[in-house]
Amino acid sequence: MTSLGLQSDGCRLGFGDIEEALAVHGLVLRGGFNFATDEAPPLGLSGAPAKSVLLVGQAGAAPWPHFLRWREQQPSTITNPLDSWSRQVIGDVAEAFGARAVSPSDKPYLPFQRWAMRAEGLKPSPLGILMHPQYGLWHAYRGALLFEDEIALPEHGEAVHLCDACVEKPCLKSCPVDAYSRAGFAYQACLAHVRGGNGEPCRSGGCLDRNACPYGTEYRYPPDVQAFHMAAFADP
């Protein structure tokens, strides 16, 4: 995306400038698109309807050391620290480039998964996480930048969906309580297991089904990162 640009306040800004501002925090641009004329997009910075959106996220655990340094300076009682860090970082970048920052946890909820599928041409895995042809299941979307100008973006085809070539589907066979199946996610069964006496492998090393996926393993989150996310799931 570095060769493209966008129009903001009459100035031509390179995507490379935004990418560099995000990279300082281990974050990356994850694609974007222009809203169609018949859509009802969220509002931009001035209160007018946004015309375009850029998704911001991570590949692997690159933001983790940046987040930990920030967290050391915060009160120990801070709630949802990763969400708070993401809001602050993406908000600062949005301010610098004349955009409005939005988060997946904003209410009313914005359709982040649909946006991500549209921006990168991805499809959900059997676990519901979007499958990326390079990162596998080890990526996330932390926020988005809404602009009131259209962005010149290249056309992209549908990404290769690695799950289509995966015959064994180990992601549906590794959980001891069959939390994931073709019928969907058994939330209560998963939660009870993680909180229970036999849930230590999941609490300390992450979801067994997710870790069983053979794709994108070089981007797999380290155990401490997975333990952090699992603790947030088990004790929201």
TrEMBL record:
This is 4Fe-4S dicluster domain-containing protein. It comes from Mesorhizobium huakuii.
